[in-house]
Design a protein that fits this description.
Chains A, B: Its EC number is 1.3.1.104. Chains A, B: It is found in: Mitochondrion. Chains A, B: Its main location: mitochondrion. Two copies of one chain form a homodimer. Chain A is an alpha/beta fold. The first copy, chain A, is about 30% helix and about 20% strand. Chain A folds into two domains: about 180 residues, Medium-chain alcohol dehydrogenases, catalytic domain (Quinone Oxidoreductase, Chain A, domain 1), CATH 3.90.180; about 150 residues, 3-Layer(aba) Sandwich (Rossmann fold). In chain A, strands 3, 5, 6, 7, 8, 16 and 17 form a seven-stranded mixed β-sheet that branches. Chain A has a six-stranded parallel β-sheet with strand order 11-10-9-12-13-15, sandwiched between helices. In chain A, helix 5 packs across helix 6. The N terminus of chain A is likely disordered. The interface between A and B is large, with 40 and 40 residues. Strand 14 of chain A pairs antiparallel with strand 14 of chain B, so a sheet runs across the interface.
Chain lengths: ~375, ~375
């Protein structure tokens, strides 16, 4: 029979090892007892997740103990638990969640970062295990953020708004007066794209799916600054570009849907193959319809269309990610100025199961769920 | 009724105007009478093309009169005549053909280019109207080429070999030992890719279609230097990359087919999304199957695959095209050294109709047709 320690989930084992190894530093700081949402195997999140007690953990010299305030349930968190996301924390004993905001609770004796108890911090770049009431990690993990914005925004600023910002900056040089086109415009990334583009004087052509309430959705997006919003069925016509009116042909398009919605983005993109200008670029960052992107070969040859992909996780691993924190500060500044907003539902940790059900779509279309600890 | 001059094909009108305007330069040089393959309207090439006499034309001060030696019938020439190619000469009176080689016959009195009668020249960048026995154009059009290679190679060096060379150079930085993957490997561009890659120490993984004689085709490509050649049906398996053996994952792929053959290229491409290396790039330059390219969205997001297009015509219009002539000289040097070869059939101008039928596929699979004037 395995010795008792083998029966513990891996996270607890790690915590124990950490305590043991840190005895030698003679630090007397320990974190408060904590609660975490854990999973030991991949599967349906409402089947495999469980709330567990995590014993106190000693702080290393440069560790910071953070009391978590809020963390969202993102689709990529769900996919990690299901086991279908390419990057996942090791099992068993993985703590869910990848972003969130917390308050500095205690500092190891050798911490040099300008942090004080009470400061708001986020893990930046984002990292595994934010569904937990207290987290102890090295000071390098934590980025201090402003605390004069709603905590739900600080908790969600990385995964969606940063994706929108990077996609606007990393592929095509855009200037004020230019236009872009996107599908899935009602998603949070889509809403951020509209608002960030507007801040820079860039027009947005937006595509949404046909459904009851699509007129209301159009109104909401226009209030955020969308220049044009079309449902897919409105674009079932030959000369899409006649709909551009005075806007220039978009040099950049975003696709988070696939299938027909991706083809519509491609049809709007600029192509000017015989002159020095390059054809448009479509960036795929999601595949909500679960259908592939289908492109006639002539789009590549004669229209000079390029197709790329964006994955924030990869960007965070690149050498460009150094300015991740600068971007976060910029985005939270826009939130503070009222220039960046999106709908979320804040729900107490005690009702985690309900938040999870909503995030899994079991209660129809719902705003992003943010758990308050 | 229109005055008689209106009834002439446009080319003849242009020639007449040219003669008239050049009287003032007092140049006494005129070209010999010429024969050209013309079309006045778009349609099936064997219906709309006709051989016409072109009257002598006066040479301007900086014009060069070239006696054409040979010119190919390229698929893009066919498409121009059919009216389905995006860039076409004006009608009526368009002369067919876009590349070819000729011999300097006479020089205008103010020509400064180092050209002498008897020199071999090609229009570079390629330009409309090479199916003609004598051509008079400004000296800037003509590029002197070596005459110690078979004239069929000088006549065809631009459209296919230059496409292969640019695609190997313009998208991904390749180093000796790297690998690339391509479909349509038996096409002339495909054969050039194999040979040019070999010259630079780059391995090629080649995909051809299943057909009678595919084993013979494999042997031919291997003789040219192909490292691996697979038929599409051989690749109907899950783990394509196990076929790479010791070769590195290709960072670059070429697609001239579309459909399943394009998907196979994508499956071979490298993807290494979490590290600093970029995923592979597929360049589409043709669509022989007339089927689109279909890509799961995950290829873009998690595998970081990029998709681009190449069209030589656009490259020639770009500011990078300055070194076009240097590339031509390099390619004809390789021909001279025996390092670049491909199958062609040379056919006299008197049998143009037969050559056209063969180029149109009316006699089964045939080598590229090159007309000797």
């Amino acid at each position: 029979m395995a010795p008792p320690s083998r029966l513990l989930p891996a996270t607890l084992q790690i915590l124990r090892r950490r305590c043991a190894s840190r005895f030698s530093t003679a630090s007397s700081l320990v974190s408060p007892p904590s609660k975490a949402v854990l999973y030991d195997e991949h599967g349906a999140p409402d089947q495999v997740l469980r709330v567990a007690d995590v014993p106190p953990v000693h702080l290393g010299d440069r560790d910071v103990c953070v009391r978590m305030l809020a963390a969202p349930i993102n689709p990529s968190d769900i996919n990690r638990i299901e086991g279908v996301y390419p990057i996942r924390p090791p099992l068993p004993g993985a703590v869910g969640g990848c972003e969130g905001v917390g308050q500095v609770h205690a500092l190891g004796p050798a911490v040099t970062a300008p942090l004080s108890p009470g400061d708001w911090v986020i893990p930046s770049p984002s990292s595994f295990g934010t569904w937990q009431t207290y987290i102890v990690k090295n000071e390098s993990v934590w980025h201090k953020v402003r605390s004069d914005v709603p905590m739900e925004y600080a908790a969600t600023v990385t995964v969606n708004p940063l994706t929108a910002l990077r996609m606007l900056r990393d592929f095509v040089q855009l200037n004020p007066g230019d236009a872009i086109v996107q599908n899935g415009a009602t998603s949070i990334v889509g809403q951020c794209v509209i608002q960030l583009a507007k801040v820079h004087g860039i027009h947005t052509i937006n595509i949404i799916r046909d459904r009851p309430g699509s007129e209301e959705a159009k109104g909401k997006l226009k209030q955020l600054g969308a220049d044009e919003v079309f449902t897919e069925s409105q674009l079932d016509m030959k000369n899409l570009k006649s709909l551009l009116g005075a806007f220039p042909e978009p040099a950049l398009g975003f696709n988070c849907v696939g299938g027909n919605a991706a083809s519509l983005v491609l049809k709007f993109l600029s192509h000017n193959p015989l002159f020095f200008r390059q054809g448009g670029t479509m960036v795929t960052y999601g595949g909500m319809s679960k259908r592939p992107v289908t492109v006639p070969t002539s789009y590549f040859i004669f229209k000079d269309i390029s197709m790329r992909g964006f994955w924030l996780q990869k960007w965070m691993n690149s050498d460009k990610a150094e300015d991740c924190r600068t971007m976060i500060d910029y985005l939270l500044g826009l939130v503070h100025e009222g220039k960046l907003k999106y709908e979320m539902e804040s729900i107490p940790f005690s009702e985690f199961s309900l938040a999870l059900e909503k995030a899994l779509g079991k209660h129809g279309s719902q705003p992003k769920q943010v758990v308050r600890f």
